[in-house]
Specification:
Chains A, B: Acts as a magnesium transporter. Two copies of one chain form a homodimer. Chain A is mainly alpha-helical. Chain A has three domains: about 130 residues, MgtE N-terminal fold, CATH 1.25.60.10; about 100 residues, CBS-domain, CATH 3.10.580.10; about 170 residues, Tetracycline Repressor, domain 2 (Orthogonal Bundle). Chain A is built from 23 helices and six strands.
């Protein structure tokens, strides 16, 4: 059922643009979904994309533009005049309109807003530009169906028909009192089953979930997920109904957050994807690699301090990469579980309890791994004292790595910093250094050198 | 606006259970959302949870049970008789009912299904148990509003009222022909604005997205995300309407998939969370750590082969952890980008092109890092030949690591294996070994030893 963008279609479109066959293009793309138009805009070159946006109906292109990656959209908008951009914005829901305007430079922003004809739309956009992007206000749209408690079912249906023209999908009908304060919602089922003269105040449901316009977007996502809400109304401090947030925006938000955390854990610091340029990818990757380099140089310095020991006990040096790798692996595991738990509001109990649990876990894992390593070194090298010192070090290093991996994200979270930054290269690098230091120190101690 | 589960409330509930104050419990929990009931069931002990499930209305508890973690639910269901479980299932939508039944042992499954009174529900569940869990059939529910094209608007509204009683939320009204084949959908807007004698065939929208019952769940998620669908009808080979999938199930699916990929990248092989027991966590973490141990032992063996070189050129050994760590970091970065790109259907072009791009990227990053390392080693150790051999090795190792990190997930994906398995410890470990091997080999070559 999915639309498949063939290279034949792209070639056909390019050819039509080349000969400026506007009618042919319009016919060809008339029935195409905006998400597919977006894919087409992404595949053709910049001039061709501009041509298509100018040619096709804004109703179709405005939503397609919102589906594009930010960098592609930026290039496209650069080619359009403020009047043309305003034309696209007239067709957008307020939430999309504001997202797009927020991406423009300040002076272009003003020029574009000035060109918007619909005064109500303009005022809504100006209001919404004030909200933080990562708050409920930044996610909401002004488009919704609102009815007054004093209306009858007949009046309500009449009003709904009018309002519904502007609202893509009627999720819920919100009921307000004379001060425009949210007091409840109306189920379509009740509306269908009530006589036309019934007052709304008699049939509305007073129990309604809502969020405050300043609530963090993350909390909104959690609330909607937990209660399986498909739309949630947004109110101000006085409970006045300002807008609503729909589940499709939350789906995008959840996906983006998950992608960001995943990339952070892999040591990629910006929102990039495989199709980005090598330079963009380098900017996202190189800083973390420098951190790793710094860690490696630190490890070298530490090992340099034990140079004599290592030279006389070569067997110890053979196992430094093993110790460093295990410290990194355990640290990443512990931190990932905590970061994910924090994201899902799943982490209960005190930091102390959490560290204790991780310590027990690390002791269990560490003991199993240390015993295996002990026998391996003993059998292969035939030196029980080396086997003992290497495996005991591994045991201690695993415990310390687990504790660091648990503590750092919890600490960052407590300080209001996104704990996801602690996963990946950061934990690996610091655990490499700690691991090697502990290893050499313990080995020296046990071997009495 | 979110319900906050206080320890006072839990204590109060436990006290009421203790004195068997059923009326008090019912009053206290009467208005509580099923998602919050689930949190309560999670906090009290097993016997208390069983007590609550027996006491409270199945309408409330059935949905709460579905919100529980699988292991908590399993323990709870163990306490209930097949008849009691069937009572909960009567209240569930078919999709939840099937998910829960699928978790039971075979003989209990049969006993429970036999106890379901509603014959239609029973038949639906039996039918749905045949679909693969990760297919559209496994996600869909049978509950939907379907109207025939031959009906009038008035008849349609009458039928909708009846059907809507069984359907929690009316997303869309699907129109079928006399063979029960999906031919379109009905917008509530059109229904509100049409006269009662209008035929459905005159007002329905023939353009409707749908999925086949055997389509993979992943494809359904992508389709619904791309086209911002809130519900999608499911049909069989003959286009007969079987059920529908709603966006809230897809939200859960997306979240689960993201969590799984994240954990895989961190070397955690089962779906665990912070609250799981130490034993469960160990089972999820230890296998990957053993893999790391194996890798470390491999690295030790390789270094053992170069023992003489290392003994005479101690400076080389100081940088083995750096080389290993950088190989791991680059490998994780490359593989993460590819895995995410594959998950988002974002990877275009051939494997060859992809590898070429990664190679160029790795050369750029590698050169920058190698130059920095060269000057550092030169200045700090004063030996230009060591500085050259170490930094040139780093350059080569980074390129190889990037290529391995790109190639393995692409290769696994081509072979139909989930590429996410290639991220994390797997890539880190293999790149550690390759990195050290390449490093020592090149150093030996350059230093002529």
């Amino acid at each position: 059922m999915q639309f498949l963008l063939s290279s034949e279609l792209i070639d056909q479109i390019k050819a039509l643009i080349n000969v400026k066959d506007d009618k042919g293009l319009q016919e060809l793309l008339h029935d195409v979904h905006h998400a597919d138009i977006a894919e087409i805009l992404d595949e053709v070159n910049g001039d061709e994309a501009t041509y298509l946006v100018r040619l096709l109906d804004s109703e179709q292109t405005s939503e397609a533009i919102m589906e594009l990656d930010e960098d592609v959209r930026e290039k496209l908008l650069d080619q359009l005049t403020p009047l043309e951009i305003a034309g696209e914005i007239e067709e957008m829901d307020t939430d999309d309109a504001v997202d797009m305007i927020a991406e423009l430079d300040d002076d272009i922003q003003r020029a574009v807003i000035d060109q918007i004809e619909d005064e109500e739309h303009k005022a809504d956009i100006r209001e919404m530009l004030q909200y933080d992007e990562n708050s409920a206000g930044g996610l909401m749209a002004k488009e919704l169906v609102r009815v007054k408690e004093t209306w009858t079912v007949a009046g309500c249906v009449r009003e709904m028909r009018r309002q519904a023209e502007e609202v893509t999908r009627v999720h819920s009908v919100y009921v307000v009192n004379k001060n425009d304060e949210l007091i409840g919602r109306l189920s379509l089922k009740d509306l269908l089953t009530s006589t036309t003269t019934t007052k709304i105040s008699e049939i509305y449901i007073p129990k309604v979930d809502f969020v405050n316009v300043n609530d963090p977007a993350e909390d909104v996502a959690k609330l909607m997920q937990k209660y399986d809400l498909e739309a949630v109304p947004v109110v101000d401090e006085n409970k006045r109904l300002l807008g609503r947030i729909t589940i499709d925006d939350i789906v995008d938000f959840i996906k983006d957050e998950a992608d960001k955390d995943y990339q952070m854990a892999a040591g990629i610091s910006q929102d990039v994807d495989t199709e980005d340029s090598i330079l963009t990818l380098t900017r996202a990757r190189l800083p973390w690699l420098f951190l790793g380099l710094l860690g490696g140089v630190g490890a070298a310095a530490i090992m340099g301090g034990f140079e004599e020991v290592l030279q006389n006990h070569v067997i110890l040096l053979l196992f430094t990469p093993l110790i460093a790798a295990m410290a990194g692996n355990v640290g990443v595991q512990s931190s990932a579980i905590i970061v994910q738990g924090l994201a899902n509001d799943d982490v209960k109990g005190s930091i102390g309890n959490r560290l204790l649990k991780e310590m027990l876990l690390a002791m269990l894992n560490g003991a199993a791994l240390a015993i295996v390593l002990f026998f391996f070194v003993w059998v292969s090298e035939g030196a029980v004292n080396y086997a003992a010192s290497i495996s005991i070090s591994l045991f201690v290093v695993i415990i310390v790595a687990g504790i660091i991996g648990t503590f750092i994200p919890l600490f960052l979270h407590k300080r209001g910093i996104d704990p996801a930054i602690a996963t990946g290269p950061f934990i690996t690098t610091s655990n490499d250094i700690f691991g090697i230091l502990i290893y050499l120190y313990i080995a020296k101690l046990i071997l009495g050198i």
